[in-house]
């Protein structure tokens, strides 16, 4: 009996029930990319991010992106200390409270980089997307955690403290449909394939790659995901 298997279907993403938004004309908009210097002072980090977003908006940005883990030093020791309860909001999550206020006041879309999120007894590396109305439109938890051990150069095991997310994230915004990944997520083409199948107009991967492995592939992977 002949097999119905077709090799070209082996890596195809599953059919997904999301219609592609119609584009009656080309969309042109300005994106602001904020590169931030993170300190151990969380309040200072939040204020620094606020000012960077405001500056980008003043220059005409309609979509502003922050980097990965911008409110906390990037270490396993820091993640539990700086983690926020995003679902609770308010005082339990001052970082996202700021993003909500600024996006609403400036009428812009913000892809909020990522922060350590506490949910029950688990910690996640989480990106929040806020619409121009200040509402949380989507939340992406980093799916592929970065565990690396290069003798004499770098050892970092994110999975010691963080839990991997399980769900791809596509969100419709004022500037189009966006697929979200975080840093190491960019290494895995299947995620981008799923986003393309879901009709994403733009892929955003806030990152904080180290200087040992990052320079070897960061720019190349950005081009490959276009």
UniProtKB/TrEMBL annotation:
Alphabetized UniProt keyword annotations: Hydrolase
Pfam families assigned to the protein according to its UniProt record, in alphabetical order: CN_hydrolase
SUPFAM superfamilies (alphabetical): Carbon-nitrogen hydrolase
PROSITE patterns: CN_HYDROLASE
Molecular functions (GO terms): omega-amidase activity
Biological process (GO), any one: asparagine metabolic process
CN hydrolase domain span: 29-226
CDD domains in the cross-refs: nit
Protein name: Carbon-nitrogen hydrolase
Keyword Hydrolase: yes
Species in which this protein is naturally found: Corchorus olitorius
Any one annotated GO CC term: mitochondrion
């Amino acid at each position: 009996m002949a097999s119905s298997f077709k090799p070209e279907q082996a890596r195809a993403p599953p059919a997904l029930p999301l219609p592609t938004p119609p584009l009656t004309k080309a969309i042109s908009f300005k994106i602001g990319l904020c590169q931030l210097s993170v300190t151990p002072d969380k309040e200072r980090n939040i204020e620094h991010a606020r000012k960077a977003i405001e500056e980008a908006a003043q220059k005409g940005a309609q979509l502003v992106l922050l980097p990965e883990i911008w409110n906390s030093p990037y270490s396993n020791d820091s993640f539990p200390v700086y983690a926020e309860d995003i679902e609770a909001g308010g005082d339990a999550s001052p970082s996202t409270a700021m993003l909500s206020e600024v996006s609403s006041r400036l009428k812009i879309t913000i892809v909020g980089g990522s922060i350590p999120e506490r949910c029950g007894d688990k910690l996640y590396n989480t990106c929040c997307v806020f619409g121009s109305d200040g509402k949380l439109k989507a939340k992406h938890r980093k799916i592929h955690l970065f565990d690396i051990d290069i003798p004499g150069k770098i050892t970092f095991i994110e999975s010691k403290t963080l839990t991997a997310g399980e769900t791809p994230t596509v969100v419709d915004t004022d500037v189009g449909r966006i697929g979200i990944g975080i840093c190491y997520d960019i290494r895995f083409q299947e995620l981008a394939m799923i986003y393309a199948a879901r009709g994403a107009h733009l892929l955003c991967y806030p990152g904080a790659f180290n200087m040992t492995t990052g320079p070897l592939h960061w720019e190349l992977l950005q081009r490959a995901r276009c």
